Amino acid sequence: MTDFVLHPQLAADSFALADAPLSRLLLSKDARYPWFILVPRRSDIREIYQLDAADQAQLLLESSTLGRAAMQAFGGDKLNVAALGNLVPQLHVHHIVRFSSDAAWPGPVWGRHPAVAYDEAAREQRIQALKTRLTAGWHWL
């Protein structure tokens, strides 16, 4: 894992929060949604099937743990989980807590509205709400 480098677009569009055993956890800079991203710390991986079986299982565990924690923290109506990678080829999995009252509902969040920047207090509040629910195995940066 020493050769892992986060794609520059992911780095520009998010805040690095934590490392799980396999993945780096990011927070999207769009404050309209509780939007988290898992990036397996493996180089030259574009698709989940390219991970070995152990890493595939670990990614599913981390994704499920993150999804459960995010829904508990933010109480959304639906959790959207997606690994698109059309613009950023590095494997990354979006976890977006959705509300029937959000700006893009019921459609996808991509390309619907310009991102809304966090103020520092709101960002820290969102991070803390998740952090209290992601404990064992998550190393906060």
Automatic annotation (TrEMBL):
Q: Which PROSITE patterns match?
A: HIT_2
SUPFAM superfamilies with a match to the protein in the record: HIT-like (SSF54197)
Gene3D superfamilies, alphabetized:
HIT-like
Q: Has UniProt tagged this entry with the keyword Cell cycle? A: no
Q: Which chain regions cross the lipid bilayer?
A: none
**Where in the numbering of this chain does the HIT domain appear?**
3-105
Coiled-coil residues: none
- Give yes or no: UniProt keyword Amino-acid biosynthesis: no
Q: In which domain of life is the source organism classified? A: Bacteria
Note the InterPro entries from the entry. HIT-like (IPR011146), HIT-like_sf (IPR036265), HIT_Hint (IPR026026)
Molecular function (Gene Ontology), one example: hydrolase activity
Alphabetically sorted, this entry's keywords are: Hydrolase
Q: What protein does this entry describe? A: Diadenosine tetraphosphate (Ap4A) hydrolase
Organism the protein comes from: Hydrocarboniphaga effusa AP103
